[in-house]
Specification:
Helix content: 25-40%
Strand content: 15-25%
Radius of gyration: 24 Å
CATH class of the largest domain: Alpha Beta
CATH topology of the largest domain: Aminopeptidase
Distance between the termini: 32 Å
CATH architecture of the largest domain: 3-Layer(aba) Sandwich
Number of domains: 2
Number of helices: 14
Shape: elongated
CATH superfamily of the largest domain: Zn peptidases
């Protein structure tokens, strides 16, 4: 997907399809609509009135018209002019690109309404175009609709194009990072294995100039990551522990650091607490946290933070065999705490425990954030579109929430209620790996908090938004790549 920035008036832009945000309310439909309407001799207003087009968000109307340089006009409902933000251009640009693809057009243009910050508007429009171009057709042999729209013109009359090109580049890199995460989540589990995730990390590290360490089974044992080893013991596919590092020029041992940790269960059958039919079929997506971290590390250099960034992925499969771990087993984590296994399907917190201990004790990262498709309880609480946000530091938790808001990803703070900690008490170990039914997302977060030491930490339970059955503009069915944009926004500043 190419993005160009014409600075002429919208009615002078030559394009197969010109998309114009149209507003509702007493202030009129907008200056851009009025100009295009005049260029078409009033046709746009007449058709809009005849079709009852109310300019509500999510609504659109295509009009073939002579007049101006465009061959078609796509009216995009934008709602109230006062409520429009630059973030909305992500969905509007995606809708324009989807319309162009549906009509086999080679490109389209989107008009940026007056009053929006040009850099932010260009960023979100570019992001929407790149994300809308995503398809996972690797294994389809028929009924494949090709994407023909290869160019988006973001029309910002009178803008300083040179000053906006950096925004286009960074947004394109961010979109590509999200699409990488989507590919990893959507890939079949026989292909996207721990070994494959390690190979992807190698490819990213080589392309982006990152440091990389990959721990095999022996190294995992030497690191005393017994929980990761236990979860992976039921599979013939060996576990891996991936550690990527971005280091800015001039960094030394005193340079601050942040660790991004992603749960990498490439397939979760549940172990001996095996999942029933209906709950297992999409468990290839249980590595969406790992995919988000790998995606963010692919784009981190484009954001050039002034501190060290570690990308950490503990990855394995959770299957059933004679060697699989069992309910009632006890293992010691990397930080020495013993855990009684009460449910082998509560495995994500186990592999994260060793990874968080590593980030805390080995790396001594100043800030740690983990992402995981951790609990169905979080989906029950917040629905399918919102991630649960927990942590041990209010200021850092707020920074993560602010980053998510800037990125256009939904998160909601949840408490780590001290009274619930008693649910994890075990008579034979330091703790159990699961509590009672109530507050399942919170007890999972409380469990993780036992492995971060004194470090500042935040946890995102992305079980809901990591995967979708209902496509939207810029979000295809399947893996969404949720979390990549939040991480990049977080890294684009002081953490």
């Amino acid at each position: 997907m190419r993005v160009a920035l014409p600075t002429s008036r919208a009615t002078e832009v030559e394009t197969p399809l010109l998309a114009i945000p149209v507003f509702s309310g007493d202030d009129g439909r907008g200056a851009d609509f009025d100009a295009a309407n005049a260029a078409t001799g009033g046709l746009l207003a007449r058709i809009a009135d005849e079709e009852g087009f109310k300019a509500e968000p999510g609504k659109s109307l295509l009009v073939h018209a002579a007049g101006g340089a465009a061959q078609r006009y796509l009216l995009l409902g934008a709602g109230s002019r006062a409520e429009l933000t630059a973030k909305e251009l992500r969905g509007l640009a995606a809708t324009a690109c989807d319309e162009a693809n549906g009509r086999h057009l080679t490109g389209c243009a989107l008009v940026v309404p007056e009053g929006l910050a040009a850099e932010a508007a260009v960023h979100f429009a570019t992001l929407g175009a790149v994300l809308a171009s995503y398809r996972y057709h690797k294994y389809l042999t028929r009924d494949v609709e090709p994407t023909t729209c290869e160019e988006l013109l973001v029309v910002v009359p009178g803008a300083d194009v040179a000053a906006l090109e950096a925004a286009v580049t960074r947004a394109a890199r961010a979109g590509e990072a999200v699409n990488l995460a989507r590919d990893l989540v959507n890939g079949p589990p026989r292909e996207i294995t721990p070994t494959r995730l390690a190979a992807v990390a190698e490819e990213i590290a080589e392309a982006e100039g990152l440091e990389l360490r990959i721990f095999d089974e022996s190294a995992i044992a030497e690191q005393k990551m017994n929980l990761l080893a236990a979860v992976g013991a039921g599979s013939d596919e060996p576990p891996r522990f991936i550690h990527m590092t971005y280091r800015p020029a001039g960094a030394d041992e005193h340079t601050p650091s942040v660790a991004l940790v992603g749960k990498g269960i490439t397939f979760d059958a549940g172990g001996y607490n095996i999942k029933p039919t209906g709950s297992m079929e999409d468990m290839k997506m249980d590595m969406a946290g790992a995919a988000a971290v790998l995606g963010a590390m692919k784009a981190v250099a484009a954001y050039a933070p002034s501190y060290v960034v570690h990308g950490i992925v503990p990855t394995c499969e959770n299957l059933v065999s004679g060697g699989a771990y069992k309910p009632g087993d006890v293992f010691c984590a990397k930080n020495g705490k013993s855990v009684e296994i009460m449910n082998t399907d509560a495995e994500g917190r186990l592999v994260l425990a060793d990874a968080l201990s590593y980030a805390s004790s080995e790396l001594k990262a100043d800030r740690i954030i983990d992402l995981a498709t951790l609990t169905g309880a979080c989906m029950v609480a917040l629905g399918p579109h919102t991630a649960g946000l927990m942590g041990n530091d209010d200021a850092f938790r707020q920074k993560v929430a602010d980053a998510a808001d800037r990125a256009g990803e939904d998160v909601w703070p949840l408490p780590l209620t001290k009274k619930l900690k008693g649910m994890l008490k075990s008579p034979i170990a330091d703790m159990k790996n699961i509590g009672e039914r109530w507050g399942g997302a919170l007890t999972a977060g409380i469990f993780l908090s036992e492995f971060v030491g004194e470090q500042t930490w935040a946890h995102l339970d992305i079980a809901g938004p990591a995967y979708t059955e209902k496509p939207e503009p810029s979000v295809a069915k399947g893996g969404t790549g949720f979390g990549v944009l939040t991480l990049l926004e977080l890294l684009d500043g002081e953490v």
